[in-house]
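Its record is set out here:
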Amino acid sequence: MLRISQVKLRPGHSRDELKKKIADILRLREQEIVTFELVRQSIDARKKPDVFCIYTVDVKVEQEEKVLKKLRGNRNVERMIPQQYRFPASGSKSQKHPTVIIGSGPAGLFCAYYLALHGYCPLLLERGKCVEERQQDVERFWQKGILDPTSNVQFGEGGAGTFSDGKLNTLVKEKEGRNRAVLETFVKFGAEESILYDAKPHIGTDVLCGVVRNMREEILRLGGEIRFESCVTALELDEQRKVQAVIVNKQYRIECEQVVLACGHSARDTFEMLLERKVPMEAKSFAVGFRVQHLQRRINQAQYGTEDGSVLGAAPYKVTAKTSCGRGVYSFCMCPGGYVVNASSEENRLAVNGMSYSGRDGENANSAIIVSVTPDDYQNDTPLAGVMFQRKLEEKAYRRGTGNIPLQRYGAFRKEVLGTGDEDESTKEQASVLQPACKGNYRWTSLAGILPEECERAFLEGMEVFARQIPGFDEEDTILAAVESRTSSPVRIIRDETLQSEVRGLYPCGEGAGYAGGITSAAMDGMRVAEAIASEYAPFSKENRHIAKD
C-alpha cells in the first residue's frame, strides 16, 4: 500500500478527477490503480478565495516496488503498512461478578461495548434515560422550561456530547489505533463514512442519537446488560478498601469487584459521595466563559473568502490567545450552523452549551470563548472547590436570565465591563440582522459580573485578538450567552498505572474523572480501561451471572 499526501484539487471535484490526480502523481494509467482510500481531507484557505481541498490517500497498485523506485525522492509518496487495533488477550483471573460500568457517555459506552464484544457481559448503569426518552425530556425542557434533573443535556444515554455537535477531533496522540477504531465503530453503527477522513470529523446531534441507540442494542445482543434510571448512590468497600458492591438508587445492592467510574463531568453528587468514601481526588484547572454567536455567512467569508457554504460547508474556526494577565483565552466546541442550548442539570442553576445538526445549516455559528481558571481561583482548597466555583457562576446566570438563557450584545457588555456605557441601555435589544439561535427560551440582560473581573477583562482582550484573525469577530452586535461552565471536569479522580484508584477495583475513566476532553478521547479512555480489565481477567460467562439484590 502506498500513501500519498498533499493531493490538491479544487472544491466540487468528482471521485474520477481525484483518481486521475492520483494516477498523475504516481505516473500511472488510471487502470493500474487497484483501489484507493481517503485517509484525510482538509481545506487550504490560506490564499482565499482561492481555496483547495487537500487529501492524504492510501493507494493499492500491482507493482508497488517499481512505482516507489520510479518516484524516489518524492517525499509525498511512501510505503504504508496498515496497523489494526488489537484488543489484548484475556487474563487468567476469574470474575465472580460482571464488571459494573457507571455512566453511558462515550467512555462508559465504549468500555461496555469492547468488553461485551470480547465476552465479558458487563453491567452498565445509567442514572438517566435511554436516548429516545431523553430526547423527549430535553425538548420539553427547551420548549416549556421543565427540567428533569436526571434526564437532560448532561445526563442520559450518550452523555453530554450527544446534545452537542458530535465533534470527533482529538489532540490525543497514540500508536495503538484506538482513535481509528473509535471512528470505525461510529461508522459501523450509523455515522457517515466521511468521519474516517475528515480533518474535523463530526456526526451531528440528530445522527448521533441513532448511533448511540444502535450501540446499546449491540451491547445487549452481545450479552451485556444496561439499566437506565439507575444512579449509583454509594460504593461499598471491604476492610482492605477494595470494591465489593455498589448501591443503586439508595435501594438495592449489586455485588462486584470491578467498577468503571465513567460518570461524566456533571455528576456532582457522585463526586460528593466519592469524597465521603475518601476516594483520592483533586481539584483541577478548566475554563469558563460565554457562548458567542455570529452569522455563519460572516464566518464563511472570513475563513473561505465567500459567504456561500454550499460547496465547502459551514466554515469552522479555532482561535487562541495568551492575555496580559497570563490567562489563556480560546474557542471551544465550535458549532458551525448551530444553536446555543440551555444545558442545565440542576434547579436554579443555568449553564449553556452549543450544538449542531448533521447538516450544519443554521443561520448562526457559535462557539464557547473561554478563559482558563485554576484552583487558585476557587477560594477553597477542597477537591470539589471547582464544583463550587461552577455552581456560583451558574446561579448568577440563572438569576440574570430568570431561568432563561441570559443574552447580551458584545458591544454593550464591553462598555459595561469597562465602565463606559449607559447601564439603562446595556440590556436593551438592538436592531440587527444577527438574531439569537437558541434551544430554550432566552432573555436580554446584563452579563457583567457573572465571571470574575479578571476573567471578564481577559475575555475582552481575547475577543480583540481574535478580531485580528477573523474580521468582525468583536463587532458590537455579536451575541453572548452565559454561562459556559461545563467545558471539562473540575475534578481529577486519581488513578495509577493500572488505571485503578487507590481503592482497588475502582477504575476512574473518561472526562468526568479528569482523563479526557471530548467524545473521542473519552471513548479511547473507555477502551483503555476495558483493555486493563481484560488483560487481568478472563471473560465473564453470562450463564454464571449472579447479581444480588437486597
About this structure: The chain has three domains: 2-79, 100-282+489-544, 285-484. The CA atoms of residues 363 and 489 lie 31 Å apart.
